Amino acid sequence: MHVACPSHCPMGERGAQRGQVTCPRSRRRRWPRPPDLRGFPSRTPLLLRSGPSNPQLCVRGRAHPPAVGPSARLSGCLRGRSRAPLPRLGRCAGRGRASAAPGPRPAPRAPRPQPPDGSACARAPPAGAREPPGQSGRPAGGAVSGSLARSRLRGEAKPGSPGSPPSKMKKLQGAPQRKPITPDLLMTPSDQGDVDLDVDFAADRGNWTGKLDFLLSCIGYCVGLGNVWRFPYRAYTNGGGAFLVPYFLMLAICGIPLFFLELSLGQFSSLGPLAVWKISPLFKGAGAAMLLIVGLVAIYYNMIIAYVLFYLFASLTSNLPWEHCGNWWNTDLCLEHRGSKGGNGALPLNLTSTVSPSEEYWSRYVLHIQGSQGIGSPGEIRWNLCLCLLLAWVIVFLCILKGVKSSGKVVYFTATFPYLILLMLLVRGVTLPGAWKGIQFYLTPQFHHLLSSKVWIEAALQIFYSLGVGFGGLLTFASYNTFHQNIYRDTFIVTLGNAVTSILAGFAIFSVLGYMSQELGVPVDQVAKAGPGLAFVVYPQAMTMLPLSPFWSFLFFFMLLTLGLDSQFAFLETIVTAVTDEFPYYLRPKKAVFSGLICVAMYLMGLVLTTDGGMYWLVLLDDYSASFGLMVVVITTCLAVTRVYGIQRFCRDIHMMLGFKPGLYFRACWLFLSPATLLALLVYSIVKYQPSEYGSYRFPAWAELLGILMGLLSCLMIPAGMLVAVLREEGSLWEVSLPRPCLPGPPALGPPARTENICPSTLPKPHGLFQPVA
Prior knowledge:
By secondary structure, the chain is an all-alpha fold.
């Protein structure tokens, strides 16, 4: 049954002229599609600045203004039907329901003549002028159609027609007069001209200069030091080529879905790890836990970069200092291994009874670990390491000085140049004698390892830590995207590129280790190591066996430097963005100064790592800062988004950004598979807990307790955040736990007291009439 359109409906007059007497919003009688807004493509928001006399409006589709009462406010993204009855004037019928205030339809009137000067639109009437009710085709209350907003924005005159919007603002009897909406109130890239599809929701916050900046930053963040010194070792100890089966399966179940979830959350909100939890203040503690974890990791991660700088400068010589014995730091156990081709050459050397020059250079000269009795006696500060650490922080600060504007340009070099060096090392490695022996040891599949649960856990851990999920870096990078950036495509590019890079690094590493094992006359498993031992002991020793060894050593450590800097950029940008989003009024204008203060504070806290016993503290931080606490944070984030915020609402938000909803694969992973996998990892980490150790040194009980408390602190911040939210928010615990499906409005939309919330996820249909939200 068709419902008559009320007299105040803005389409009633036009409907009468076209012979259509039913309400255009009725489901059974659809109104013909209005003219498209040329300046505003579909789904492109048109934001109006909120003020004391102008509403805040978000236009995301076709223009069809509703009847707005004098006390009604426009708030959010108005695309669906009305949420509440409008005062005194009623509303149009929706979904077949009768109108609240039907009335006679006004008689058609002739179009208003255009001004003789050809201006874009007629000027507003004088302050005292009034029009009789019902004589204006424009709805009451100051709402403006998209076509009128477009014409005023572009400075064009719209030809007069029966369907053209009027050029005069109507003033209701007894209602406060609203100012006309002029181009200076429109939040657009410029005062005139078309609006770009990639609209900036928070212009003062900043965006990437280009889409490639974001993609390369994500690649540099994920492809780090772990791809070089952890993946190859885990691969050959867990079945060789057979390890790739659980690796790619865990990538599909856990890696890609969580990566896409974090990018979607950051891009949709345009907020950092702390402010993004306005969707549910009860879980803001998860954002604080992210900052604690990434802060601890950034402190010791930059110390590793300082070690790389130390070796980089040491490679600028004609002879590498770790090539021969006889230096003041060497002991009687030092022996230059030349295998069966050197020395007496009778039998393979027993590597357990001797020490290589590269190992003594690392432990006795670089670390000077003999000057410390353990973690409780750090010893003196190594000033050469202290200066290298200072240089590392200066480099990081200069690269993030202007936020993503500066770091987004640096990654064009730091994210691409490592691939060139890696290819050079690979080509050089496969041409060495014995290289095939190492590659065969690396890739020979041992499928019986797949029956062990340890292999599957190791594959999941490698995926989890390699992609950097849960640290907040992905969320931070995505928050600087434009609203319609195709992060779905970027997710597959980064995750698959990270996996391919890890496999490629394994070829480059094990080809050289195969050559080294042949030269020493020992099996490959006796020369292969993981972690810093591979980067600072084994591989430097292999470089001494090559012609032009300083050149290859410099390339290798320069590759490690670029890999480490990309990850460090993300860690620092996460901290700075999270805090500035919480206090934008005070910190955003001084973001560069605040970044410098963060770097200085972390440098001072990292000085303990430059002492004689600093390596013990680095191992303790590495083992506990991002262990089970990080898994708890990711599980909490996944459950909060899918269960509390709502999987359907989250998928509608993604549909608004990308134009499609995630399929069954992503929903199943977010709801069940990914949390279950992370829970299994957490249980495995607790059950298989082993005390930390460095070589033959065992950490004392108080150090183990300190590490456990360090990991528990990040977990305890989640319930602490819930307690703070309950005490600060009004209402019961159940009311505080309810989701807030509103995207916080950007600060640029107006003063904080007048800024409303933009709620695109609460809208039922992608197209429809603009409706006021009471």
